[in-house]
Structure to design on (447 residues):
C-alpha cells in the first residue's frame, strides 16, 4: 500500500513564476510523432490549479501528449470518455490530471476511484498520482491491492482519503467493509480491455454501481473488446466522447525483429544478443511461470545481472523486484505476462519475446514496454516452427511486418546518445535496405 503523506511545504509556493526555479532533469532523447504530433497545447491552457501545474512541471512534463491534449479538456468538461491510444503515450496522466484538478481536499470523502487490473500497475499509478499532486494541500491518495493486510487498509479508510487506486477484487472487498463510494463521482478504468474481460467485468460493475448515478466514467486502453459497447450503452452517458488515436497499432519508435530458430537454440541466441546489443535495460517474456524462473537462473549462470517476476511470487517479493528494477539495480528482468500492462520503465530499450505470445493483444502490450513516451527501442521475437502460424496470424491482424533480425542491429534505432537527425538517418537506411531486399526477392522469383 502506498499513501501520500499529504502536503509538504515547498519554497515553490512563495514564487509567482515557479517554472523559473523548477529544474527537472530534461529528457533530451529523440521522440517520435506518437507524443510530438500535437496541436501545440500547453498544460496552462487547461486552466489547472497552480499547485497541480507545479507537480506536472516538476515531474518533467513539458507539454501534453496527443492523448492528453484530446482527453483532458473533455474530462474537465464532465464528459464520459472512451479513449484508445497506444501503450506508452501518456494515458495515465490523462485521467490522473483531471482527477487531481477536481478533487476538493476540504472534503474528507473518496472523490475519485481509479481501477486497474494488476497490483504492479496500481502501485505505479498511485506513485504517479502522489508525485503529480505533491503540492496540493491536504491531498490523500490510497493504493489498495491483494496480497497485503486488510486491517491496514481498513484503518487507513478511517482517516480522510480523496483518491483510491486499486485492483478490482481488493476494492470490492473493502467496499463491503469500510470503503464508502456514495460520494465518488469520478471513476477511471485503466487497461479497460482487461477490466471488461469475463473474469473482471462483474466485479468492476459492482463497484461502479456503488457510486452515484451522476458519476463520470473514463475508459482508457490500447485495445477494446467487443463487449465495451454493451458496457458503454448501459453505464456511460449517451454523449460519451470517443477518442481514437490508433491509426496504427504499434509504437512508431519500436523496431520489430524476429529470429527463426529451434527451441534448443534460444538460450544461445539470447546470449549472443546480450553480447551484441547496447542494452540499457531489457524485459524478457516467457509464457509460463516455470520457464520464467528457469530462464532467469540460466541468464545468471551466464554471468548477466537478472531478476525475475511472476504472479505466483508473494507480494512483498514482487514489490521489491519491481522497485529495484525500476531504480536500475539490475539490467535484465525475466517476466510472465504480469508486466505487460501499463508498466512504465523509461530505461527499458529492449524487449525480447523468448516465448512468442499467443495473442495479438499480448504482443502489443509486451512490445509496448520498450519505446515508452515516444522514445526509440527494439522488440526481438524468438519464433520456432510451432509459432509460425501464430506469428503470421498476429502480423496479419495487427497489419505489421516483423522483419528478420540482421547480423548487426544499428544502435541508432534503440540506444541513447544519438540526435534526432542520426536516428532518422538510421531509419531511412533501414528502409532502403528493406526495399533492396524485396526488389532482389522479386527479381529472383521472376528468374
Amino acid at each position: 500500500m502506498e499513501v501520500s503523506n499529504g502536503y509538504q511545504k515547498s519554497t515553490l509556493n512563495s514564487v509567482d513564476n515557479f517554472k523559473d526555479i523548477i529544474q527537472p532533469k530534461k529528457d533530451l532523447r529523440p521522440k517520435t510523432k506518437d507524443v510530438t504530433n500535437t496541436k501545440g497545447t500547453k498544460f496552462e491552457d487547461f486552466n489547472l490549479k497552480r499547485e497541480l501545474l507545479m507537480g506536472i512541471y516538476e515531474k518533467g512534463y513539458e507539454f501534453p501528449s496527443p492523448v492528453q491534449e484530446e482527453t483532458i479538456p473533455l474530462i474537465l468538461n464532465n464528459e464520459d470518455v472512451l479513449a484508445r491510444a497506444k501503450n506508452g503515450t501518456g494515458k495515465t496522466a490523462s485521467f490522473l490530471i483531471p482527477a487531481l484538478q477536481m478533487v476538493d481536499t476540504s472534503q474528507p470523502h473518496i472523490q475519485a476511484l481509479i481501477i486497474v487490473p494488476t497490483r504492479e500497475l496500481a502501485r505505479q499509478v498511485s506513485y504517479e498520482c502522489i508525485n503529480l499532486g505533491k503540492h496540493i494541500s491536504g491531498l490523500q491518495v490510497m493504493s489498495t491491492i491483494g496480497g497485503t493486510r486488510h486491517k491496514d487498509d481498513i484503518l487507513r479508510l478511517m482517516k480522510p482519503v480523496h483518491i483510491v487506486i486499486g485492483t478490482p477484487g481488493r476494492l470490492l472487498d473493502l467496499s463491503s467493509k469500510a470503503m464508502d463510494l456514495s460520494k465518488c463521482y469520478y471513476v477511471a478504468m485503466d487497461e479497460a480491455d482487461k477490466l471488461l474481460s469475463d473474469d473482471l467485468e462483474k466485479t468492476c460493475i459492482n463497484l461502479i454501481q456503488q457510486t452515484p448515478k451522476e458519476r463520470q466514467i473514463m475508459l482508457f486502453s490500447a485495445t477494446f473488446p467487443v463487449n465495451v459497447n454493451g458496457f458503454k450503452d448501459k453505464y456511460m452517458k449517451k454523449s460519451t466522447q470517443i477518442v481514437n488515436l490508433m491509426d496504427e497499432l504499434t509504437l512508431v519508435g519500436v523496431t520489430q525483429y524476429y529470429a527463426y530458430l529451434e527451441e534448443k537454440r534460444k538460450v544461445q541466441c539470447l546470449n549472443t544478443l546480450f553480447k551484441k546489443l547496447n542494452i540499457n535495460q531489457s524485459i524478457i517474456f516467457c509464457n509460463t511461470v516455470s520457464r520464467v524462473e528457469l530462464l532467469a537462473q540460466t541468464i545468471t549462470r551466464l554471468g548477466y545481472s537478472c531478476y525475475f517476476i511472476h504472479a505466483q511470487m508473494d507480494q512483498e517479493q514482487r514489490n521489491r523486484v519491481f522497485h529495484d528494477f525500476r531504480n536500475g539495480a539490475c539490467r535484465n528482468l525475466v517476466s510472465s505476462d504480469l508486466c505487460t500492462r501499463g508498466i512504465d520503465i523509461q530505461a527499458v530499450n529492449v524487449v525480447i519475446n523468448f516465448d512468442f505470445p499467443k495473442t495479438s493483444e499480448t504482443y502489443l502490450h509486451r512490445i509496448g514496454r520498450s519505446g515508452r513516451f515516444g522514445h526509440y527501442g527494439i522488440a526481438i521475437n524468438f519464433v520456432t516452427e510451432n509459432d509460425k502460424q501464430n506469428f503470421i496470424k498476429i502480423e496479419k491482424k495487427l497489419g505489421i511486418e516483423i522483419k528478420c533480425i540482421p547480423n548487426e542491429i544499428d544502435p541508432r534505432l534503440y540506444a541513447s546518445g544519438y540526435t534526432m537527425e542520426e536516428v532518422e538517418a538510421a531509419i531511412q537506411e533501414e528502409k532502403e535496405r528493406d526495399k533492396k531486399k524485396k526488389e532482389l526477392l522479386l527479381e529472383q522469383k521472376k528468374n
